[in-house]
Structure formats: structure tokens, C-alpha cells
Amino acid sequence: MHAAHLLVALQQVQPAPDVGTGTSLVGSAVGAFVTTLVVGAILVAVAPDYTERMMGAVVDEPVGSFLYGLVSLLFVVLVTVVLAITVVGILFAVPLAVVAVVVWAVGAAIAYLAIAERFVGREDGWTKPLVVAAALNGGLTLTGIGGLLSFCIGAAGFGAVLRDWLG
Q1: DSSP 3-state of 153
Q2: pLDDT for 141-154, tens place per residue?
Q3: 9, part of any domain
Q4: pTM of the complete model
Q5: Residue 1 lies in a domain
Q6: Burial (Cβ within 10 Å: 0-12, 13-18, ≥19) of residue 60
């Protein structure tokens, strides 16, 4: 008799609402769009010459920039993990991770601006390339395989920025 009551009780339990992949993909896409738009706007307003120079570096050496960015990212992740293991090292790991995220955002915005400039040009200002760059990043992030391509584009920009800063 107890087994029958348990079975009835289990059948009446409502499943949890699905807040899985679809919600996280849309949130990631919106975040990518907004980040690219805001960081790109800051870059072209504050440092337009630097932005143009870095866009040229990404276009001129996309494979070299990508490889430099990928290796640098792996190194930063490894160093951050090793530092986070120790109590004292965590004081250095958190700022390192924050700087890496900011540099990644700058590099990704530059790489997407370089692609967007190829699509729409820049004769009438930065507005169109900024919106197209943000839409490209958000759109690629929204799709499954596009996330991988988005990562590669971001790595190329990250590599171009680091190569410029580190020599």
C-alpha cells in the first residue's frame, strides 16, 4: 500500500521549468553584443588611431594573431589556476583574470570591427561598423558552432593587442 501512495505522489510532482541551453545562449549573445558595442565605442572615441592600427594588425596577420592569442590565453589560464591554488597567489590570480578579460574584450572588439569594416566600410563614421561588429559577435555566439568561430575571432584580436603591448 505504501508503494502505491509513493508512486501516486511521484507522478504528481511537477518538473522544474527549463532554463537550460536556450536561455544561456540568448544571454551570452546579448552579453557579447553589448560588450562589443560598448568596448568598441569606447575604443573609437578614446583611441581611434590605436583601434585602426590594431584592426590592421588583425587583418594583416590573422593566423599569427590567433596563434599568439591562443597560446597567451592558455598561459594566462594556467598561471591563474596555479596562483589560485595557493592562498597568497589568489591575491594575484584575481587581478590577472580581470586584466585578461578586459584585454580579451578590447581585442575581440577590435577583431570584430576589422571584419565589420570589410562588410560596410567606414566612409560615414564608426556607427555602422560598431553595430555590425556587435551583431556579428552576438549572432555568432547565439549559434552553436558560431561560438567556436567567435572564440577564434576573439583570440585573434587578443593576440594582436598582446603582441602590440608585449612587443
Answers
A1: helix
A2: 888 778 889 999 99
A3: no
A4: 0.83
A5: no
A6: exposed
